[in-house]
Amino acid sequence: xxxxxxxxAYFSDLWGGSRLKKEYNKSEYPGYVLSETWELSCDEEHPxxxxxxxxxxxxxxxxxxxxxxxxxxxxYSRFDSWPLSVKFIDAHQNISIKVHPSDEYAxxxxxxxxxxxxxxILDSLPNAxxxxxxxxxxTPDEFEEMIRNNTFKKVLHFQPVNxxxxxxxxxxxxxxxxxxxxxxxxxxxxQVKYRVYDYGRVKPDGSPRELMIEEAKEAAILKxxxxxxxxxxxLCDCDTFKIDKIHINGETDLSTDGSSFQHLLVVEGDLILxxxxxxxxxxxxxxxxxxxxxxxxxxKGHGDVLMITV
Length: 310
Hints:
With 310 residues, the chain is mainly beta. The protein has 2 domains: 3-227, Jelly Rolls (Sandwich), CATH 2.60.120; 242-309, Jelly Rolls, CATH 2.60.120. Helices cover 13% and strands 37% of the residues. The chain has 6 helices and 20 strands. Strands 1, 4, 14, 15, 16, 17, 18, 19 and 20 form a 9-stranded antiparallel sheet that branches. A hairpin with a 4-residue loop joins strand 14 and strand 15. Helix 5 (140-148) runs antiparallel to helix 6 (213-219). The radius of gyration is 20 Å and the shape is globular.
């Protein structure tokens, strides 16, 4: 049984901003540009760390390896390796346009299958948005020509966003977070992705960033529109994860039932979590892990929490 405060891994990229540090309690990061924080990661090079309890100073992977199904839950048995990546993203500039192939395409190419990905919009500047599919049907040859001529942005569908919006990025959908958008990204850890458009940006040595045009021609949905998906009452419900939003107004009792751990992220307000002798302050931007075998706990205050489970 455990409730653990988490400490993310930090990333600075050329498109990042500074809002996460200023507004989401990431002030311990020493730099100015903070593009991403990896809030739930078992990546060996960029792990999420435990910041409370007997496992303080250990990685999230070390905790799960030690505790096994008690911490992970019975639902985890369907995975053969750690399945999730959960990030806060601050896009000060447009992020490159990518596409994930379908399971059928991946199987044909001998690649890992499955490419679940979802964005929850934390905040956005006026007129900011995401790129989400195409505005008109495009032929594969036209697709290639426009990428090589650096004109593909003309047919990308620009979707204005508002705080609290949710977007599922399924296989084949061309997608990107636009400048001025702050988002939570939850996705499958082992993803195949093809970068198809990068606004003419170059590497530090002046060479162009690599594009995967031939693969993307086969993998991308080049028809107008976005495929619909039934979320069964959740913000997102896909093969890899579920996302739920919990509004706290006073006191809310929650619990785990042994099926899955619960990853809690405070996206609005400052809260207090209590359970037995545990009393933990949860500030905006803080991440917490509740083990699958923990049972009941209570959150007090006024704010919003996103809960991610498997």
